[in-house]
Amino acid sequence: MLLVGLMGACGEGAEDQDVNAGSQDKSPTVSRSTGVDTAAWIRELAIAGVTDLDMSKVEALTRDMCDDSQEELTTFASLQKDAGEPMDVLRINFRFVCPDQVDKLQAAEAQLENATDSVQEACDMEPTARTQDQQQLAELMGC
After folding, report:
1. Three-state SS at 45
2. CA dist., res. 126 & res. 15, Å (int)
3. Domain parsing of the chain, residue ranges
4. Angle, helix 38-47 to helix 88-97, in steps of 10 degrees
5. Are 95 and 66 in contact (CB under 8 A)?
6. Helix extents (H) in 35-101
7. Model confidence pTM above 0.90
8. CA distance 71 to 16
9. Per-residue pLDDT tens listing for the chain (143 residues)
10. How many alpha carbons fall within 13 Å on the CB side of residue 42?
């Protein structure tokens, strides 16, 4: 649970994040500095099975990741995959915190998928039929 584990280490209680608490305004909970609809974000995370997070810390972590390069996101996606973790939660976080960076995240996931496909193809190929690149991949992966 790499991503969820990181977020879980961020603290307790998403319910503590109601910046409108105590006010008479019944509008959605919105992060004052960013316009993130925190209430909707919490609902989507709950549907994904993630609850009891310190949303201000999750937002800060996500905002930091939004600035990552596609290569850095690809590396993170690889770690997520190796840990058996889906990318759903990170996609949700990106949609709420930095929707303009969702394409970069999707490109990183596609790059990882292409690399995974290439490795699988190299491993599945008869050794005598492999290209030089496939041979190198197969040797690196031990297949």
Report:
1. helix
2. 56
3. 2-141
4. 170
5. no
6. 38-47, 55-66, 70-82, 88-97
7. no
8. 34
9. 445 445 544 443 333 333 333 334 433 444 434 588 999 999 999 999 999 999 999 999 999 999 999 989 998 988 888 788 888 999 999 999 999 999 999 999 998 887 777 778 888 889 999 888 888 878 887 88
10. 19
